[in-house]
Write a structure and sequence with these properties.
The protein has about 450 residues and is mainly alpha-helical. The chain has one domain. The protein has 18 helices and 2 strands. Helix 7 packs parallel to helix 18 and helix 14 packs across helix 16.
C-alpha cells in the first residue's frame, strides 16, 4: 500500500512539472510567505492606498514631491528590515525586464548630453518600478495581502472619483470643448485618470463575482462604490478608459472555478458588461466623442502620430532611435516643432526607443505575465488577475503606462496568481488523501 506522504509527493512532483516550478516551492506553499512583519504589511497597503492619488509621470524619481513617493520610499525602507521576506524569491520574469533596462542603458551611451538628465531619471524610475514588482510579488504570495491590496485600491480610487465629481475647489478641474466636457483632478491627465478608475472597477467586479474576501460587508462596500467609479470614468471623457474597462470586464465571461459557480459568474459578468456598455452609450460626453471617432474618424491626432511612429520604426527597426531622441524626432515629423512627443502607444514607444532588440525582452516579460494570469484562473482569485492585466495592456494601446505604479502592482499580482493556484492545489489534494489506518 502506498503511504499518504508518498502519494502527496508524487502529486506535487507531477503538478510542479506541469506548471514549470520546482517541487520544493510547491511543497512549501504559503509557508514561505508567512510571517511577513506587520510594519511591512501596513506600509505596503498605505502605499497602495496613495497610488491612485499620485499624478507624477516619472514615479519615484519625479522631480516633484508627492505623498505616494514619500510613502513608497518608506515602504522600501521597511523592506530592508526583513530582506528574507521581501526579496526571498526572484521571479524569472524580472530577468527579462532587467534585460530591457540594460539595453536601454547601453543605447543611452550614444545619446546626446542634452538628454542625459531625463534618461537618468527614467532609468532610475524603471529600476525602482522593477524592484517594486519584485517586492510586491513576494508580499502577494500571501493571499490576505493580495485581497487587501485589491480592496484598498478600489476604495482609494473611489474616493478619488468622489473628490472629482464633487467639484472640490482647488482639486477638480473641468475643461469644456465644443461638444463635450472633460473633468480631472489634481491636474492628472484625463486618460491616465480614467484608466486608474477602470482598473479599480475591474478589480471591484472581481471582488463581487468571486470568493475573494471572507466578509460580506466588503462586497457590499465595493458594490456601493462602483457607480462613483463608472461615473468618474464618463466624466473624464476618456475613450481609452471606457474601452479598457469594457475589455477588462469581458474577461469575467470566461468560466473559472467550480462547475456550479461557472454559470452564475458568467451570467453576472454578462449583465455587468451590458450595463457598462449601456451607461457609456447614453452618456452625452462619451457618446459624442465615440460618435466623432466612428463617423468622422477623429482620434485626437493619434492617427497621424501612429503613422509617423510606424514609419520611424521601419527606418530603424533593430536598435531604434535611442531614448529621448525619438520623442523629438516624432514631434518634428508630426508637428514640425521638435519639442518632444510620445507615440501614445507603449508598444510603438518601445520599438522607437530601443528597437526590436530592446522591446523583445520587455514584451516577453509581459507575455509571461499573461501566461501566469491564465494559469492563475484555477486559483482563488480566478479570472481577476487576467482581467486586471488585460485592462492595463489594452490601455497601453493608447497611452504610456510603463512608468505608472498600478501597472507594476498588477504585474506582481498576476505572477503571484500562479502561486495561489499551487497552494490551492496542494491544500485540496492533501485534504483528499485518506489517513493511514492503524490496523
Amino acid at each position: 500500500m502506498v503511504s499518504p506522504s508518498r502519494l502527496i509527493k508524487a502529486q506535487v512532483r507531477d503538478t510542479s512539472d506541469q506548471l514549470g516550478v520546482t517541487p520544493r516551492k510547491l511543497e512549501l506553499g504559503s509557508e514561505l510567505s508567512s510571517g511577513i512583519p506587520r510594519m511591512i504589511r501596513w506600509t505596503f497597503l498605505v502605499f497602495v492606498f496613495s497610488v491612485p492619488f499620485d499624478s507624477t509621470t516619472f514615479g519615484f524619481m519625479s522631480p516633484s514631491l508627492s505623498l505616494a513617493k514619500l510613502l513608497g520610499f518608506l515602504f522600501f525602507a521597511s523592506c530592508l528590515t526583513s530582506p528574507r521576506k521581501c526579496f526571498s524569491r526572484l521571479p524569472h520574469v524580472i530577468w527579462w525586464f532587467f534585460g530591457y533596462l540594460l539595453i536601454f542603458l547601453f543605447s543611452s551611451l550614444f545619446s546626446s548630453e542634452f538628454f542625459l538628465q531625463n534618461i537618468l531619471i527614467k532609468f532610475l524610475t524603471r529600476l525602482q518600478l522593477i524592484l517594486l514588482l519584485w517586492v510586491a510579488y513576494n508580499l502577494m504570495q500571501e493571499e490576505e495581502i493580495t485581497k487587501n491590496t485589491l480592496l484598498i485600491y478600489t476604495v482609494s480610487s473611489s474616493l478619488l472619483a468622489l473628490v472629482m465629481l464633487a467639484g472640490v475647489a482647488g482639486f477638480s478641474e473641468v475643461t469644456e470643448y465644443e461638444t463635450f466636457t472633460r473633468t480631472t483632478v489634481f491636474g492628472e491627465d484625463p486618460n491616465m485618470l480614467a484608466v486608474k478608475m477602470a482598473l479599480a472597477v475591474v478589480m471591484g467586479i472581481g471582488i463581487v463575482l468571486h470568493k475573494i474576501n471572507h466578509h460580506s460587508w466588503e462586497k457590499i462596500l465595493v458594490i456601493a462604490l462602483l457607480p462613483s467609479l463608472i461615473v468618474g470614468i464618463l466624466a473624464t471623457g476618456s475613450r481609452t478608459g471606457a474601452a479598457s474597462l469594457i475589455i477588462g470586464s469581458a474577461v469575467y465571461l470566461l468560466p473559472s472555478g467550480r462547475a456550479r459557480r461557472k454559470i452564475t459568474t458568467i451570467v453576472l459578468a454578462f449583465f455587468s458588461l451590458i450595463a457598462l456598455v449601456y451607461i457609456v452609450a447614453h452618456d452625452s460626453s462619451s457618446s459624442s466623442r465615440w460618435s466623432q471617432t466612428y463617423h468622422e474618424g477623429k482620434t485626437s491626432g493619434r492617427d497621424r502620430i501612429y503613422q509617423a511612429a510606424i514609419e520611424m520604426a521601419k527606418e530603424r527597426p533593430i536598435f531604434g532611435w535611442q531614448p529621448e531622441a525619438f520623442l523629438f524626432e516624432l514631434e518634428k515629423r508630426v508637428q514640425e516643432r521638435g519639442t518632444g512627443l510620445d507615440p501614445h502607444n507603449l508598444y510603438l514607444y518601445l520599438l522607437l526607443e530601443v528597437g526590436i532588440v530592446g522591446a523583445a525582452p520587455f514584451l516577453i516579460g509581459l507575455w509571461l505575465c499573461v501566461q501566469s494570469a491564465w494559469k492563475g484562473r484555477a486559483g482563488r482569485l480566478a479570472t481577476l488577475p487576467l482581467a486586471a492585466l488585460l485592462t492595463v495592456l489594452s490601455a497601453n494601446l493608447a497611452i504610456i503606462w510603463m512608468t505608472r505604479k498600478p501597472m507594476w502592482i498588477v504585474l506582481a499580482m498576476t505572477l503571484a496568481a500562479s502561486h495561489h493556484r499551487l497552494h490551492r492545489y496542494r491544500t485540496k489534494h492533501i485534504a483528499a488523501v485518506p489517513t493511514r489506518s492503524r490496523a
